[in-house]
Write a structure and sequence with these properties.
Order of helices and strands: HHHHHHHHH
Helix content: over 70%
Oligomer: single chain
Number of domains: 2
Structural class: mainly alpha
Amino acid sequence: MAQRFGGKHSPDGGPVASGARPMAAPHRAGARRNFLFIAPLPLLFSAFAQGALGMALDLAALAVLLLAAWLLTEGLKAEDAWAARKIARRPGIPRKMFASALTGIGVALAAFSLENGLVAPVILGIVAIALHVTAFGVDPMRDKGMEGVDAFQTDRVARAVEEAEKHLAAMKDAILRAKDRGLERRVDAFQTTARDMFATVQDDPRDLTSARKYLSVYLLGARDATAKFADIYARNRDPQARADYEALLDDLESSFAARTQKLMLSDRSDLDVEIEVLRERLEREGIRTE
């Protein structure tokens, strides 16, 4: 759904939410990725201009190439998520490499419907794989920032953040029913603040215990309150209900921001303690530190 830009000069006259997350930049391979959904479509027409075997091969090639394009899209999303985090596991399924292999198979099938031999289709398939890898690369092959991090704790954080993101998504869907651009931007600003906490917890999984109530209880309450408010406001546009809901968002945003700041200060305090303990040990060993 299209959405207008906000600001004091926009038709609704409302200010832009200060914490609104900027629109995500398109992936650098977006145009090439989208082209892979379009390039195989001529096979749909050429399939019905051939015999039964040629038609089957063309349709199979079309299906394989579209599957490869979809896998590539998912692989690029997983790669972006991996790159955006300081601590991340490599993708469990190498989607981009599977996409390269399927692209080669699809091209080989399409070529085989035109050639009687196997040599040319195999060569074209190998070339297609090489070009695909050159254009899009391969999946991340290593974990990032996992040294000294408890794998069990990291998995717990991943599950907690995934559940919290579901609450935010439900909250966003609910406020759309209110049909109010200003409120949509206000919810976006709160979600930005909440995701700052997610990032802090992901950077140090030990913070999960302190933040769990925020990621579960508070976000669940915010989701339910948003759903109820949107239904009421869509019916009667009650200004008092809107004011109460905005006050709730203000309280939530302040609470999340304060907790995130406290988590960051706690992490710094832990670092200071570790440094001081190490210095004391070095001094006991007769090594003076500045």
